[in-house]
Amino acid sequence: MGELGEESIGRSVLEKDAEGRHRLAASRCPECGDVRMPRRDYCVNDGLPCERILLSGRGEIYEAVFVSVPPKGFDHRFWAGYIDLDEGARIFAQIACAEDEKPPSHGQRVEMTTLQIGVRAVLAPVFTRAPGQGERDAPG
Amino acid sequence: MTRTAYVAGTGLTAFGKFASASLGTLGRDAGAEALRDAGVKAADIDLIACGCARSGILHGRESGVGQYVGWELGIEGVPVYNEKAFCASGAMAFNVAYLAVSSGRHDLALVLGVEKMSSRSGKGRPLTSDGMVLEGEQGFTPPAYYAMAARRHMEVYGTTREQIAAVAVKNRRAAADNPKAQYRKLITVEDVLASKPIVSPLNLLDCCPTGDGAAAVVLVSEAGAERLGIAPRIEVTASVVGSGYYRRQDRDMTSFALDKATAGKAYEQAGVSPADIDVAEVHDSFSIAEILHYEDLGFCEPGTGGKLVQTGETAVGGRIPVNTGGGLLNRGHPLGATGVAQIVELSDQLRGRCGVRQVAGARTALAHISGGFQDGDFATSGVTVLSRRGGWRDG
Questions:
Q1: Which residue among A72, A82, A117 places its CB closest to the CB of B148?
Q2: pLDDT digit string (tens) for B260-319?
């Protein structure tokens, strides 16, 4: 149980918005606009204090791979990869893909949802492809 | 003024899984061999630099591995620098010793690299990504990173799965002729492609093993060599390390700015170009890594690394033989030992001691290693250039 980031970096990377939906918690530099997830206190470019923002959760796949041998803490295979979020941050995350769907690939549009992952059932961002981008292979 | 530093002697244990060995005994065996090879005594050593990445998490010895090995060897009263830089820990130790000797502060340094991963007294795992802990919570592993790089390289440049597998086959061929390598039985491209899938497109035989082992190098200044009456021939013409460029988020995973930067500085420091390199050790923790690094080291044009290995140019007998000792894939990869083991292999090549895997007439050699991850980039890169001075019959 718990949320992603609580164990590894001491705080969740998720935050609820006014409508109660989980969003990605990020930081933005008020000067250069640099966006980072997870949040940074100070901008890595100019050292200024960053403002806290919530991200849209939309972006595109930079690259995705199928992890056939799940590492410790995971009991089944999964897709994961780097997601380039629309606001400019690149993050690593799992990508939802059923066995009969086409594999995720570079450039596909994705949107964030939240799912419990791993044996600890950690609530984490998981990305799903936009309609039409992960469509099933034709039967036969 | 910078002074010249020489490799005066080297030592290497076999790499593998050795239940009865400890960090102390492994380091001792490699260190004693290096001292004998250099023709110096333990009492002559005036500095120890030791690379070991996982001593804390695996063996409850977070600090002081260099002191532990020095204690085994009878080296006392000297400064000891313990370096932890992931897979590049040994390369970092070599760099520290190089700085100490070339600065004129020290004359005779013992560089150690040691790791014991086959058993542990602590609770930790042999391979974790300290710089990617958030990603690790989501299932990130090093092969996943390299698998993404492989997919990008295949899509952007048309690199084939067979070309990637050819790295593992070539390096196993070299390891077959290295009695200290962990895996020596010949394999084929078909074997690689049929081995257990790990992270697509990488299979088990595309991945380096864990294991135990140690390597050691004696570095000496000219003044130290004169005083001790030894005549080392292998000059360290460049030793460069650097950390990642983490700020860049739209990183192109087919090429890495960090390795280009350390390689560029090393070529400049040594006064050589990629065309001058006769033999190289290149980080091949995963088969695709060697292809990526060929390109960033300037051994070939971007996108042509797959072809370079497939055509045999990086095999023993080719234009620029790479990983003649078997590489991380087959000599093995006890993390802290590897960076020093690379120097041992190249020194042996430059001294004409490699038997059937000898690169004829090798005079200039390059070692490259990557170490760990931080925020999506490699955490460390190290490049060393060695050059042979004098004639071939001088030993």
A1: A82
A2: 999 999 999 999 999 999 999 999 999 999 999 999 999 999 999 999 999 999 999 999
Contact of A95 with chain B, judged by CB distance below 8 Å, is answered with: no
- Min CA distance, B327 vs chain A (Å)? 24
Task: Report the b/e string of A26-38 with b at 16+ CB within 10 A.
Answer: bbbbeeeebbbbb
Residues in chain B: 395
Look up residue A38 and give its amino acid. P
Is B144 close to A80, i.e. CB distance below 8 A?
yes
- Please give the pLDDT value at position A132: 78
Neighboring chain B residues of A42 at a CB cutoff of 8 Å: none
> Scanning every residue of chain A, which has its alpha carbon at the shortest distance from the alpha carbon of B130?
A8
Place of tokens 């990983």: B323
ipTM: 0.95
Question: Closest approach of chain A CAs to the CA of B144, in angstroms?
Answer: 7
- Please report the pLDDT score of residue B117 as a whole number: 94
What pTM does this model have? 0.96
Catalytic, B333? Answer: yes
User: Judging by DSSP bridges, how do beta strands A122-129 and A90-95 pair with one another?
Assistant: parallel
* pLDDT reading at A140 higher than 60: no
Work out the pLDDT band at B393, boundaries 50, 70, 90.
very low
Contact B91, B382 (CB under 8 A): yes
Sort strands B377-388 and B234-243 into parallel, antiparallel or unpaired.
antiparallel
pLDDT value of residue B164? 98
Catalytic residue among B50, B52, B87, B354: B87
| A71:B139 CB<8 A | yes
Q: Are strands B47-51 and B80-83 parallel, antiparallel or unpaired?
A: parallel
